């Protein structure tokens, strides 16, 4: 079952999750290193993240935040923390496969976030809001039809 892991450093990796719901839960908990929450930012996808990422001071995940903002079509007023696993929806107790289109979109956003992060090492953004706006512009451009 296809999924994508997006780490706080904007690297991403494809995953194959088990089909059994109990095994899925165990694997997700292991990958996220703690209890998980599910968030819906797209009708056909779930983002799984640490349930207390901010509280235990996990690093901000700008790539996952940009993906969530882009899919929802708005700037989220909060950040996402720690590794995030993107999967298909849960319609019958077990998480479904992330479809190829959404998998590709998530990878594109993570790639753009990584590209921008490397640019920022030579040209830091002037402020946090400027960084967020630039990241969202990159993410939205990545998902525009060619």
Would you give an account of this structure?
With 146 residues, the protein is α+β, with helices and mostly antiparallel strands. The protein is built from four helices and five strands, in the order E-E-H-E-E-H-E-H-H. The protein has helices spanning 21-32, 62-72, 100-122, 128-143; strands spanning 2-6, 12-16, 36-42, 45-50, 84-87. A five-stranded antiparallel sheet has the order 2-1-5-4-3. The longest helix has 23 residues, at 100-122. The chain is globular. The two termini are 28 Å apart.
Report a brief summary of the structure.
The protein contains four helices and five strands, in the order ββαββαβαα. The protein has helices at residues 21-32, 62-72, 100-122, 128-143; strands spanning 2-6, 12-16, 36-42, 45-50, 84-87. A five-stranded antiparallel beta sheet has the order 2-1-5-4-3.
Quaternary: single chain
Query: Which residues form runs of ≥5 with pLDDT under 50?
Result: none
Structural class of the secondary elements? alpha+beta
Distance between the termini: 28 Å
**Helix content, binned percent:** 40-55%
Give the number of DSSP strands.
Answer: 5
Number of helices: 4
Features:
single chain; 146 residues; alpha+beta; 5-stranded antiparallel sheet; 4 helices; 5 strands
